[in-house]
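Sharing a chain and its predicted structure for anyone who wants a worked example. Both blocks are below, sequence first, tokens second.
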Amino acid sequence: MGIAREVFGDALPIAERYAAFLADAGVERGLIGPREADRLWERHLINCAVVAEAIPDGAQIVDIGSGAGLPGIVLAIVRPDLRVTLLEPLLRRTTFLNECVEMLDLTNVEVRRARAEEVAEEFSMDVATARAVAPLDRLARWALPLLRPGGELLALKGERAAAELEEARPVLQRFGARTTELLQVGHGMVDPPTTLVRVVADREVGPGGAVGRQQRAPRRAKGSRKRSS
């Protein structure tokens, strides 16, 4: 909890209420596995909170396949300057997310019940996040059309991150990716550090991969990076 206090700061009481709700209703409704209840902080909450290191100030975020709100709700707690849309197609999960938002009084969060493909023409986000949703090639098809030119996909990945990145290159090229890289965040907070695949969108992208004009990318946040392209 010392690390949790360092990561969440004054927002720790809100994070504690969220953790308690995950361990209770989240497990009961099948959004969190029963074995996860005892390791929510190190495996889930802190692991997601450190992603905030890679997100610019005041960004508009869409969390794809938000499920139990990881990482979307955690990011909204630790970074109240962010505007977060939790995108989730399943009713039982959006019901849970709405209950979380109301209980935690998260005024910077909106819950949207839809698939990414259904809202691609509505969204022009700064950042898209996703955790344990799909392989990167499939995730890129959903996420890149939701981003403005220069917007970033931040996909939380495990030990196969580099392999997934290589496998996804044809799709990333088709959908107008400008650059890709592996990024680790949370050094000294989580062990091992959280691994992200960052994909910067080069152009406006339609749901089928049609691309439009180019613009400059937003300011990058600090972190240790491994350049991939």
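Comments welcome. Residues 212-229 have pLDDT under 50 and may be disordered.
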